[in-house]
Each structure stands twice: as C-alpha cells, then as structure tokens.
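Hey,

Quick one before I head out. I ran the complex with zinc ion overnight. Inputs first:
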Amino acid sequence: MQRILLLLILTTTTLFSQSQTELSYYLPQDVSLNPTIPTPQSVLGHNVGEWHVTHDKLVEYMKALANASDRITLEDRGKTFEDRPLLLLTITASENHKNLDAIQSAHIKATESNSANAENRPIVVYQGFSIHGNEPSGSNAALLVAYYLAAAEGAEIEDLLKNTVILFDPSLNPDGLQRFAYWANTNKNINLNPDPNDREYSEVWPGARTNHYWFDMNRDWLPVQLPESRARIETFHNWMPNILTDHHEMGTNASFFFQPGIPSRTHPLTPQLNQDLTKGIATYHAKALDKIGSLYYSEESFDDFYYGKGSTFPDINGGIGILFEQASSRGHIQESENGLLTFPFTIKNQYTAAFSTLEAANSMRKDILEYQHNFYKNARAEASKEGKNAIVFGDEKDAAKTYHLAEILKRHRITFHDLKSDFSKDGKNYKKGYSYVVPKNQKNTRLINAMFEKRTTFEDSLFYDISAWTFPLAFNLDYTETTTANAGDEVTDLKQHKGGVSSKSDYAYLFEWHEYYSPKLLNAILKKGVRAKVAMKRFKANGTSYDYGTIMIPVKNQELSTSEMYSFLNELAQQSHITITAVSTGLNDGIDLGSRNFSHLELPKIALLVGDGMTSYDAGEIWHLFDTRYDIIATKLDTKSISRADLSRYNTIIMVNSNSGLSESSTKKLQSWISNGGTLVAYKNALKWLNSKKLMTIDFKKNKLTAKNITYEERSDFRGAQVIGGAIFETELDRSHPINFGYKNDKLAVFRNSTLFINEDKNSYNNPIQYTKNPLLSGYISEQNLDSISKTVPFKIGKIGRGKIIGFTDNTNFRAFWYGTNKLLMNAIFFREEM
Ligand SMILES: [Zn+2]
C-alpha cells in the first residue's frame, strides 16, 4: 500500500511539474506575444521552474531581451565580490525611451519644487528580486516578468508601459543566487522528491542567503557598505522610485505575504499616508492572488521599522517600499501544510505580485506621484524651520573613520561641508579635515534625522530587526549640534587623508593607534619582519603627546637599511592614510623609547573558525574586515577540520557566536593549544559554551522573569519584549588597558543584540570595559533587561596555562558599519600578549 502511494506521488509530481513549467502556466492566456522576442526557454535551454536559473544564464537571457526589444535598455552597474555583473533593465514604452533623460529630470524636479504636475508623468517602479540567494522564486519569476513586459502586445500593456518606468533588478544578490542554483540543481532528482528530509532542501553551511562575505544584504540599504548595495542605492537616488518591491521567500508551511506589515511597528518618521497607500496597493495583490486561488495574508507579521531593509528604505525617501514573502519550496517541490508546494507555483505567485504592483502603480499613479511631491514639500518646510541648524561630526585623531561616515552621506546625496576652523564644544575638539558639518536645511533632512537620531521610546516593544542604528555612535565619532556659521566649503570631492612619513629618521618612527587603518599598517610592518613595539604608557616626544598604544619602529638593527625603511614605511603610510612621525632621540618626557614599557609585538597568525556550529554572519563580518579593510590573511578553519589541523601554525584563533560549540575531541585540542600559549578570542554564546566546558569561569548574571497578568494570547509578545534585537549602549573605558588602546574618549558606544550579562569583577582593573549605570543610548530594551545590564561587563579575560581566552559578549563588527568597535577586536589580536 505504502509503495503504491509513493508511486502515485512520484508520478503525479513528475506530471505536475512538466505541465507547470510551460509558459501557459504562468502567463495570461488572452494576450498575444511578439514572436521576435526570445522566450526564456529559447535562451536558457529549459523552462522556467524546471531548473533553478543560474546567474550566468539569467544574464544571458536579459541581454537577449534587451537586444530584441526596444522597450528595454540594459545597464551594467558594476561587479559583485565574485565579479558577477550588477544588471539593471530599464523597461518602458519605446517612445519614453526616446526622451528618458527628460522624464527622469522632470521626475526629480517634482521632488525639488513646490509645484509639479502629475498629469503626464510616468510613475517610477523599482522591482528587485531575491536579495536572499536561497529565496529564488523572485529571480526565476523575473525571467517571465521581463519576457512578458517585452513581448506582450495590445492596448493594456501599451498603456502600462506609457505610464510607467520600470527599473528592473532581476537579481539583487548574484553570488547568492548562483550558489543556491548550484545547490538545488545538483541535488535534483529526475523523479522529484518532496520529502523535506532530502538533501535538496537543507543546504550546507553557510547557505546561499548571503553574499560572498556572508552578509545579509537586505540590512545594508542604509549603511551601503557592500558593492551590490552601492550600485542599487545609486540607481535609487538617480531615479527616486515611487514604489520599490522586494521579492522574498519564507517558511515552507506559510502562504504568501504582502505589506503593510504590523501597523504599530512602523517607524514614526514614516508618514501615515505611506502606509495607507501601501494598503491601497495591497488590494490589487489580493485581487490578483484571489484570481489564481493562492492563499495570502497581510498586516500580521514583518514591519517597516529599520530603514536598512529594502522594503523600508524607500519610506524615508518619499517612496513606498513593499515586501513580498512567498512560502519557499527551497528546492523543486516540497511537502507542506498546504499540500505539495512546487517551485513553479512559488514563481507564479511572485509573477502575479509583480504584475499586481504594476497594475496598482498605473491605476494609482497620480495619487502616488502627488504623495512623493508632498513628502518633499513637507520635508522642505521642516528643513527651512531648521534655519542655520547643523550637525558636526568627527574625530580629531581619526580621519579615516570620519571619512567613511561622510562617504555614506555622499552615497545618500546628503550635502555636507568642511569645517571653517577648529572649535571645541562639551570638551570635544572638532578639527578641520577631521570633521564635517551637515546643514539640516536640505532636501534629505528626514534621512539625516533617520541616520543621526537617538530614540529610546517606542510604540511597540517588538522589532523584526534592530531598533537603533545611530550612525555617529556606530562610528564612535564625536558629534553635536552646531550652526552653519561653522561650515566652510561644501565637500564635493570627498578624499581620504593623505598619509606619509614626516621625514627620514636614523633613530625611530612613531605613530599613534587611533586611526582606523593603524592595524593595517602594523600588520604590514610585522609581516615584513620589521620589529615594532607598543607603548604601554603615555609620553611626550619633542613636545608632542603620544597616547597609550603608540607604535614605535626603531631604525637600527633591522633587516631593512635606513633608506629602505623610510621608503617602505612611507609607502605603507600612504596606503593606510596615516601620518608616521620621524624622531631623532629616544629621550622623552615620560617613558623613553628604550623603556621596558615599550612592549615587543609579534605578527598575529590567525585562524577564524567557520562551518557547522558557528554563526555565518558574524564569521563573514570578520573575514570581510580582515580581507577588504586590513589586508590581514586569516585561515578560515572549518570546525570539521580542527581535529586534523596543525594548530601550532596559529597564535590566535577566533570563535564567533556559537550555540553548540565544538565536538569533544576538538575542544580538547583547542584547550591544549591555549595551554601552550595560544590566544582564543571568543564572542557571545561561545562564552556560555566555554563556561559550560569549564575552559573559562564566567559569572553570568541570572535574569529570572515570570509572567504576571499576561494572557495566553499575549505570551509570545511578552517573551519577545525581553529580546534585545539590536540596541546601542554606553560603556566606560579604562584607557590604560591594552584592549582600549586607540580610543581617545572614556566612553564608548557598543552594539548589543544579546541578553548575556557578566557581573563585574571585584578587582576594578579587571573591568576595563563596563556598562555605565544607565547605559541605554538608543534603541529598545525592556525595563528588566536595562536593570540587568547596568554596571555589568561586556569583556572578560580567562587564563589557561600559558595562554588565554579574550571574551566579548557583544559583536564588535556588526554588519560592516560598526566601525567604532572594530578596534576592540584588533587590540585583542595585536596586543594579546600585553593583556
Ligand atoms: Zn528574504
């Protein structure tokens, strides 16, 4: 009986999928199609939905379409980390293409003047697909959407294309899409197998959701740290789309979701009308999905809070962002609570939502164009009330970090100025070339608020993602309110600080540790075999003050000659944008250069644990940091390989957040490596694991919370409110401790998304980083947790034999834009012997 049933399932699924992948399954039947436009099958060699399209084939098809259709132009906007092109198709009526520049400038002008006519202007819709590579129905549907837009004939499509400019981004994550297609296709049976236990439906670590360095790119729309985002954000600001759609997938047992999300979780800077229009657009999705018999829901999950997500970013930029979530078949067909879920069915729903969006855009065109016009009209009124108000940010000792925040402003078309002249406020010095002034009275004033504001009160206590991202805190920059009286020239050509060596020395060179790229410089120095030392105390040389952590390179008794040393350092200093100072005497005010308080440094030889058990995002952030910013080579050591690897090659091993830890044998091996002098840098739940294995003794603060007056229905909200989804807290630093070298202030903002609290040590010198009494700077935390975090410590050192464990409860490298705490990790690596 069982066998017959199985056979029945197999036969039906095979048949099912064959008929489901024909064009007629997806496309409307009553429309004639231009035969000169190539079908997807004619270029890919297979029907859509039969195999998972690889990015290479997707590119080939989009090129073929652009060649064949005068409705489509194709633009290559740059490369992913793996050298794949970042394509954009502009799809509109051929007459519109003839004067696209005029359409574009009229569209932008409507956001910049108080009068604009919506009558004859096309609406601009940005359609983006599969930013998560393993949510492939979007990009696979994009093949069909683009085909239909090119090939369909008749009054309806002509009307749509006349009134709409479509910015079509068929694959928001090319590297992830390619990785997933490889997985799903290589595990496919001829006889499709819907058993969820099949290998086809569970990818190996790290999966294909992310890009090359394992980033979730749908969190990078505001920080814009990744090449894929940079291309996309440039298109966005060039065009200022009215609607932007973001096609995703969710769990297999779900149905289909379209926004609005949970109303109480909308960011307060987003106008209510944005949500009302989203709801208006939603009626078109509902109608279209009703027609094909698909189940769906809205308003019960997801939200519009964090502006770094694709469906929320447009909301602070006069547009309307819309999230779609389709239940995922993951591979080609999978059992689900809603019956057999086929890949073609998921594609069909995405296709349907893409067209219901375009139908809504066309029908609601005038209302939505007026909404954007008024958004900026109102923003201008708010901006002019600001008058001469401005924000100044900077770091008198770190030009590079300042530059990188300015770079984000530039990417978002926010204008800013050089400082007119140095000034001080609240004990902080703002120095020309190390600070910028941002006038509030400008077009993107609302975006400036979204980036710089601190927020600690919220309507809801649950968040889909982080609740705070205050940029100057993330960058650990000084900032304050000022006026445009302090503004010099507008910065049009943003440049990095030019580094170099002050002059040639026969004695020694010095540089402070504050600049962002100082670890890059030191690493290159040590890698060359040049001896360098770190100052454990402050001193004055030649009238100049040098802080804790100053690096000293003696000239004599090195393998490089005096002049080789000069040119070697000069070149490195330029590459790292750092000024190195030549000194001619060892006699200082304070410690002299030959003092024992200059400690000898050894090149870090690093292994980064990756693979099963490790959080891929956190590992990817470190890989990206080392590889793209500091030119540090770290071995990505798979947890499966620890037992056969020669660990003595490394003096530093990094273990990111991990819930499961390592196997017994790997744990033993790691323990003996530490005993022999190795340094393990461990993060977040890896500390809990180390504590449970007695490799480190940690006094975690216990937080007992019982529900009082909470109903059964309210239970998950109650639990959710105790989550720290991502908020910013203030710590106090003991700057004389090597973990804090290179920090010039006594306070440091840190990002936290865990509820691990470590009690302070009874010896104060063991608490070099400590949360202040009332540490919340920005974001949501429950009262109970805020009470718990007070005066606890996010940093702890444990010793085993001759080695040590350096532990952090918080992620110091969050999403590539937390520049402010990267140095904590660098200090743990370079000054591990000094702690
Ligand atoms: Zn997704």
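The longest strand covers residues 769-778.

Talk tomorrow,
K.
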